[in-house]
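User: Run a structure prediction on this.
Assistant: Running it now.
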Amino acid sequence: MHTEFTRKELYDLVWSQPMRTVAASLGISDVALAKHCKKADIPVPERGYWARKQAGKPTIQIALPPRFPGASDRVGESGSNSYWGPDWAEKVKEIAVPPVPMFDEDMASVEQRARRLVGEVRCRRAFEPAHPLVAKLLARDDERRKDFVKWRSDYYAPRYDAGIERRRLLIINALFLAAARLGCRPSMNTSKYGQDAGSERDICITIGRAHVHFTVEPIKSKKEGQKERLCLAFGAARDRANSNRVWEDSDESRLEGELTEVLVEMLVSAELSYRGGLVRHREWIIERKRAAEAELRRRQEEAERKARELRERLERERIRRLLSQARALDRANQIRTYVESARLRVAEIPMTKAEFEEWASWAEREADRIDPLKSGMIAQAIQEHCEEG
């Protein structure tokens, strides 16, 4: 779909006419239109809605639900590449600056709605059920178990049979299942030995258009004799020390009891990321347009400079040709004067008159050849001057 709408605009459109009519006007199929609406969480009329409406029977128009936290309010975005390329300045100049982002809900309302969406996140004591990504890690653990039996090395020991790594994976599983229930997409490395490296233990949940990265890692207790504690922090592993969202085991509670709050914060964080992205994108467009205007001015000045230099070069060339033709006329006149002077004193020359006249004819022809008036060079020069000037 090449046309871009807000959710409200597309909602009003699909409830104003039958889906096939709307889809045809947009140049797509009604199935494709329905997919766009489903992806944007836009309800569409049920089968038979328009027949009942035309027959005067009562119908119900489903209200447009609020935008999911972190999801885009735009439908049919084309991912334009007009910001780049050799003609980027001309294209960017034509792009309209987006309006200042406005939102129907304040962040307090978004948080309340996120809590209703999340409900309660419970962490089970077993992987029943297991999220598909977690199931892959458990399958990898079975492979490690076989290697452990074969090699008897702790490097191959199963990781998730017991202990803090099992707790960690159970927590991840609970968050992944709850997020998937809301339509979010979890992701993490599931290679056989990738979980050994810190950067490979980064975890992400895609919420709308935002990617919320976090880690769940054991930390050593500050008190001697205490067991390792688990800490969940927003951000990638390399940024963990600077994370502003951290939950961890304490003497009074365990991390498992904080998962509802964690997922709510993820949704809120996704919404903040989306809103901040709109603001930054608008500022970037403004800056890009400013750069485009500067670039177009530079190009215009460069074109004017080159045109000025070309005019100056052509003028110098015309003057050079003018002087060259003037010198040629002088040489032609000198030859003619020389020939006439010689003709007056031909009696002093030791040759026949016929021989002299043959030489004189050749000399006069050469004078005519270099004479710009005789050769037509001056007429060509005058014509070029008129065309250029």
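The radius of gyration is 42 Å.
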